[in-house]
Amino acid sequence: MKLSITSWSFPLLTLDEVGAVARAIGMEGLDVGYFYRSALDKARLLKEPEAYGREITVRLPLPVSNLYHLFGASPAERNLALPGHRAENLADFRQVLTFCQAAGSPTVFVLPGLINGAQTRKQALDETVESLKPLVAAGQEAGIDVCVEPHVHSYLETPGLTAEMCERVPGVKLALDYAHFAVSGYRQEEIDALIPWLGHAHLRQARPGALQAKMEQGTLNFPAMFGAFKESGFTGYVASEYVHQDYFDTVHDDVMSETIKLRDLFRAWRQA
């Protein structure tokens, strides 16, 4: 396993500055997306994916470890549980996969979608399953793992429902962030049941009621998590994702200090 960091962890830094910082603190990859000052140019990515991907590999001092793709301008717009957008989402996603190939990103992750209108969770899941199937097939053709990140405020908020989605979409992977389940009170061993579908991981400490916590104030056992990943045969990237955002009030932690604590913990585990 290799340790990367999310570019959106440092919202006031440009992409080049995040790359320089990530390299300086010994990260092994950089997760990229469309947010804050470090945002990729999404319009250019969709128009010139191969050229832009090659440019990014030259520009950044670290490998691109993952791309976070959002279909619309917000998590709600053109979300995977919203009927009527499969064709345009697939067209964009083929461009995204071309970018990932050119940039060397082994994975791309998307969100599962929201409850739209009067949908039930089952209806939202049914729609997402059918929306995902062509995306995953395109990813397999391109040699890129397509991952979904279950998250609070989506409809995909339980390990059981997440497992059902994975079972219904052969080949799909997860961008697994234990914090999104721990905040709702799920035990770590319940979340471990999703490891067979692990394609990428986001790492930050959390506890019931807190999506993000200081290392000493959360309930997640990272050495146990890393051991479970290793036991499953996972050899991909795990990404430090401490953030400074309004989302779920994750604005109170020193992102750099918590990132270094996590880095040191991961290094010690790997060395052992």
Question: Can you offer a commentary on this structure?
Answer:
The chain has helices spanning 15-24, 42-47, 49-59, 86-103, 121-142, 159-168, 179-182, 188-192, 222-232, 255-271; strands at 2-6, 29-32, 64-68, 107-110, 145-148, 173-177, 198-203, 237-240. It is α/β, with parallel strands linked by helices and 272 residues long. It has an 8-stranded parallel beta barrel with strand order 1-2-3-4-5-6-7-8, surrounded by 4 helices. The chain is globular, with a radius of gyration of 17 Å. The mean pLDDT is 96.
The biggest sheet, with number of strands, parallel, antiparallel or mixed sense and barrel status, is: 8 strands, parallel, barrel
Approximate shape? globular
Structural class: alpha/beta
How many DSSP-defined strands? 8
What percentage of residues falls in helices of 4 or more residues?
Answer: 40-55%
Strand neighbour order, sheet with most strands: 1-2-3-4-5-6-7-8
Computed over alpha carbons, the radius of gyration is 17 Å
The secondary-structure element order is: EHEHHEHEHEHEHHEHEH
**Which percent band covers the strand fraction?**
5-15%
The DSSP helix count reads 10
Short description:
With 272 residues, the protein is an alpha/beta fold. The protein has helices spanning 15-24, 42-47, 49-59, 86-103, 121-142, 159-168, 179-182, 188-192, 222-232, 255-271; strands at 2-6, 29-32, 64-68, 107-110, 145-148, 173-177, 198-203, 237-240. The longest helix has 22 residues, at 121-142.
How are the SSEs placed, and which strands pair?
Elements: E1 2-6, H1 15-24, E2 29-32, H2 42-47, H3 49-59, E3 64-68, H4 86-103, E4 107-110, H5 121-142, E5 145-148, H6 159-168, E6 173-177, H7 179-182, H8 188-192, E7 198-203, H9 222-232, E8 237-240, H10 255-271
Parallel strand pairs: 1-2, 1-8, 2-3, 3-4, 4-5, 5-6, 6-7, 7-8
